[in-house]
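pipeline stage [seq->struct] | target=Hydrophobic protein | organism=Mycolicibacterium komossense | residues=51
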Amino acid sequence: MIVLGAILLILGFVLHISILWTIGIILLVIGAVFWILGSTGRAVGGRKVWY
């Protein structure tokens, strides 16, 4: 999710499409939160490991 957010963020910046920029930021934040919660050993969505 972090990688997809970064790709959309870059595409939105290069192509000057604000919706891609916004979605990219949202995905980066959500991905970072999931990554932090997963690294602390806390279950996210009922699962401890996301594949």
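stage status: PASS
auto-comment: The helical segments are 2-15, 18-39. Residues 5 and 24 are 4 Å apart (CA to CA).
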